[in-house]
Backbone:
């Protein structure tokens, strides 16, 4: 059963990759190609996820981080080569974006904390991203990055606890779960919020 | 425990550091590559950057390009990061770590020329970046298929001959590394070398060469 599902998944992933590469060949607009390449990264994560083990889940995070950092580097290059200096303001103004971000972000972050771990981080990150989109994000990324750095240290501490003091495994699990939540949240929140501002 | 590696391309293993089943090792082959990467990183640290001079044909007129200190500092940082990523890729005993280091080499290569205010160079860097990013699909895909079919990512374990690594996974891994800057995709990268700053742009070329040599060793060993 497992072999059949893996083969089917692999076939679909290869088909998706072929489609994405074909669209990349056909596309001429630079910005569109950047977005297509980002979709390609998602298929990459699908390849890793297909393995379906704990190790594969752990490998998705570095894969995601590398993909995001490449995307951000390329976005910066695109902005520089097109000479886009001023970040767009008031692109999308809907009433709900003025009134709701606080509550929606809070709901998502709380739900993310309940979920914990990788998926919790993704949900909470979405909440923070929504908040940034609606309320602006001057100087906030710096604070988020600091939190991300501290969370990474916590994560490492949890791993050392696992190795050196295995009897405190529950403490280590909770620490690692919280730390990865904050770290993934911070990484997710970065997407789309860096537009070559003064603090970048 | 891992005597089988002795007969492989890398030669006798001089040093091995075990982290569970992941073993980082130095064979004469990887050690040579590591020393090369290290030497060029040191070179990037200590050397003074060139000042590019354009000479006009048919006269004695020439123009010197002015590059700010801040820009050079950023490019040196990126060149050092590129060297460190190359060194990591040379000694890694884990296929996934190798692919991560390879992707990092791709990012830093773009970073080395990112600060240049030259539209042509930036266009080339963008094209290279698109190719490098697309190349992460075969790169990670290859590693993921190896993990799914064998259950391990350790090069030591895989080299023992207990598992058969599918040829398609090896091919994808090779294709991914080629996409990070070897021929035929080198064309996009070569245009980046028009950027001034001699000791730093050399890292773009050297790092791709080193990771390509390493991936050949990995593909033959596993």
Residues:
């Amino acid at each position: 059963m497992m072999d059949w599902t893996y083969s089917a998944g692999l076939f679909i992933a290869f088909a998706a990759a072929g489609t994405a590469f074909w669209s990349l060949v056909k596309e001429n607009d630079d910005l569109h190609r950047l977005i297509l390449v980002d979709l390609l990264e998602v298929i990459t994560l699908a390849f890793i996820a297909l393995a379906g083990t704990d190790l594969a889940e752990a490998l998705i995070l570095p894969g995601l981080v590398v993909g995001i950092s490449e995307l951000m580097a390329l976005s910066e290059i695109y902005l520089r080569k097109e000479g886009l200096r001023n970040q767009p303001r008031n692109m999308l103004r809907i009433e709900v974006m003025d009134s709701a971000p606080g509550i929606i972000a809070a709901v998502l972050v709380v739900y993310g904390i309940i979920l914990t771990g990788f998926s919790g981080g993704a949900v909470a990150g979405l909440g923070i991203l929504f908040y940034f989109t609606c309320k602006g994000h001057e100087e906030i990324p710096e604070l988020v990055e600091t939190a991300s750095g501290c969370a990474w240290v916590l994560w490492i501490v949890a791993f050392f606890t696992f190795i050196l003091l295995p009897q405190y495994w529950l403490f280590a699990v909770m620490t690692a779960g919280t730390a990865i939540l904050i770290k993934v949240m911070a990484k997710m929140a970065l997407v789309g919020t860096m537009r070559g501002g003064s603090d970048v | 425990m891992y005597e089988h590696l002795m007969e492989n391309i890398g030669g006798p293993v001089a040093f091995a550091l075990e982290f569970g089943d992941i073993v980082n090792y130095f064979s004469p082959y990887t050690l040579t590559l590591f020393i090369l990467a290290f030497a060029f990183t040191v070179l990037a640290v200590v050397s003074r950057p060139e000042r590019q001079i354009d000479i006009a044909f048919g006269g004695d007129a020439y123009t010197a390009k002015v590059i700010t200190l801040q820009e050079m500092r950023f490019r040196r940082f990126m060149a050092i990061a590129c060297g460190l990523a190359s060194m990591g890729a040379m000694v890694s005993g884990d296929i996934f770590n190798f692919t991560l280091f390879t992707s990092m080499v791709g990012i830093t290569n773009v970073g080395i020329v990112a600060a240049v205010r030259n539209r042509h160079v930036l266009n080339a860097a963008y094209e290279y970046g698109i190719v490098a990013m697309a190349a992460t699909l075969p790169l990670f895909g290859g590693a993921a298929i190896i993990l799914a079919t064998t259950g391990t990512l350790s090069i030591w374990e895989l080299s023992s001959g207990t598992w058969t690594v599918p040829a398609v996974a090896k091919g994808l891994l090779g294709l991914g590394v080629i996409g990070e800057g070897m021929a035929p995709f080198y064309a996009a990268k070569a245009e980046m070398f028009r950027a001034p700053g001699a000791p730093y742009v050399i890292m773009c070329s050297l790092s791709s060469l080193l990771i390509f040599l390493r991936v050949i060793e990995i593909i033959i060993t596993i």
Q: What stands out?
A: The mean pLDDT of chain A is 81. The interface with chain B takes residues 6, 10, 13, 17, 20-21, 24, 30, 33-34, 37, 40-41, 43-44, 47-48, 50-53, 55-56, 59, 62-63, 66-67, 69-71, 73-74, 76-78, 80-81 of chain A (CB under 8 Å).
